[in-house]
Amino acid sequence: MAATTATVPQAVVAAAAAAAAAPLPPPASPAVASPPAPAQVPAPTVVPLPAVTPAPAPAPAPAGPQPTALSAPFPGGRAVRLHPVVVASIVDSFERRNEGAARVIGTLLGMVDKHSVEVTNCFSVPHNESEDEVAVDMEFAKNMYELHKKVSPSEIILGWYATGHDITEHSVLIHEYYSREAHNPIHLTVDSSLQNGRMSIKAYVSTAMGVPGKTMGVMFTPLTVKYAYYDTERIGVDLVMKTCFSPNRVISLSSDLQQVGTASARIQDTLSTVLQYAEDVLSGKVAADNTVGRFLMDLITQVPKISPEDFETMLNSNINDLLMVTYLANLTQSQIALNEKILNL
């Protein structure tokens, strides 16, 4: 069986070495970031704050390391990294809502560090709403979070979500409860009605405002929503995206061989792009980037050096093992079918 090996083009090696050896540019003087233009920031939503019973004093924190909570000012440059599994869970809870329910709410879970806020999971919370009052099953939310901590202890409560595009007085009451569970909680809205022809997803944080001694209100300030995903989530998203090009919105799962072929084609396209960039740098069409050069040098050094003969031997050995396992599986299946027929005689 002919072996196929991946060869790194010499142009890529030369460009990477040249860029890596290039001296670093002198450090630029520190620049002061100017505030964003007011026209690009959505207008904050202000909702009157109804009278709420003061929260009881929090219990002392248990000993040992605790997950990091949201802090003020908001980390991550006022941006929230949202994973696709959260959006899928919210849509699923909306599709399974009780009859007559206008919207669904739930708890957002995730992780926080000094540079980013990631919403990685969520669960729905039962509630009832009317024009005059709202009732939320807080005991259910607490029990669900306790169970979730046993599986993912690193995820903490980041806030809550609600379907719809409006922030009502009831939202203020629910947000006040989550303020007891998480400092500076996030409020995520998902427009399930598709008013603009797409599912609008927005995130907010609240700030108390008003005149001292007078009626206080809450201002919901918008945050930037960015999308992040793990490798396993990326596979599911790519599969779902393929249904957009299917006439009946249904697509079958790809076999292992098809997935390997798709991944190989994607790698080949990426190598072609890198090769074109290296040729442009060598010809002087594009200025050399030291960061890209060092990245390419690290990538080249990670490529295993295997001779074609050794690669062919390894491949043939794996193929023989696979054929043997397939033969034994088929033999076992035939033996089981034969035993069933003998027992039925």
Automatic annotation (TrEMBL):
PROSITE patterns: MPN (PS50249)
Alphabetized SMART domains for the sequence: JAB_MPN
Start and end residues of each MPN domain: 80-210
GO molecular function: deubiquitinase activity; metallopeptidase activity; translation initiation factor activity; translation initiation factor binding
Cellular component terms (Gene Ontology): eukaryotic 43S preinitiation complex; eukaryotic 48S preinitiation complex; eukaryotic translation initiation factor 3 complex, eIF3m
Gene3D superfamilies from the UniProt entry: Cytidine Deaminase, domain 2 (3.40.140.10)
Domain of life: Eukaryota
Gene Ontology biological-process annotations: formation of cytoplasmic translation initiation complex
Keywords of the record: Cytoplasm, Initiation factor, Protein biosynthesis
Description of how the protein assembles with itself and partners: Component of the eukaryotic translation initiation factor 3 (eIF-3) complex, which is composed of 13 subunits: EIF3A, EIF3B, EIF3C, EIF3D, EIF3E, EIF3F, EIF3G, EIF3H, EIF3I, EIF3J, EIF3K, EIF3L and EIF3M.
Protein task: Deubiquitinates activated NOTCH1, promoting its nuclear import, thereby acting as a positive regulator of Notch signaling.
Family note: Belongs to the eIF-3 subunit F family.
Protein name: Eukaryotic translation initiation factor 3 subunit F
Organism: Eublepharis macularius
